[in-house]
Amino acid sequence: MPSNSRPQSPGERGLRYGLRDGACQAVTQGSGEQYLSAFALLLQASPFQLSLLSALPQLVGTVAQILSVKVLQWCPNRKALISVGTVGQALTWVPIVLLPLVLPQWAPWLVVGGAAAYFACAHFTAPAWNSLIADWLGQHERGAYFARRAKIIAGLSFFALCGAGWILSLWQHSGAAFQCCIPHSTSPTGNKSDLP
Asked: Total structural domains in the chain?
């Protein structure tokens, strides 16, 4: 029985994947990026460290974006640049979460450094991704496509933020499970006996 649907072109598949990418980005923003400051506070970050956490990653990300434009001139393979940035962005969550637990005396600085690396990788992909999507969209289709993508990102980011907050509140009420994992950063003296 023949199928009535015609095969999709690489551009059409790319646009569909672009929407899925936006959905994944929204979940990452809502359940990860939005909680970096709270995580830093849990690790006893000072006001100066919190201000760096708010400002430095964005600055590093902007520099990475400018660098990406230069790299695109030498290496025109946009998909490879997007893949490198995406893998780097995913891998930066490992040091953001684990290194502060291993080296609690440096925990706030490690979160700042990890967040800077995360935003550098995220912004590094932006010029190549925007260029690739622009090739697949007609001039009059771009507004509708990006509006739809922005709507998906806004909705999912909100629900991910609420969902992650709900999970954290459940974890908080289930006892000091998380505090036992990082006793040196939650306790002023580093002793488990100081925990409530």
From this structure: 1
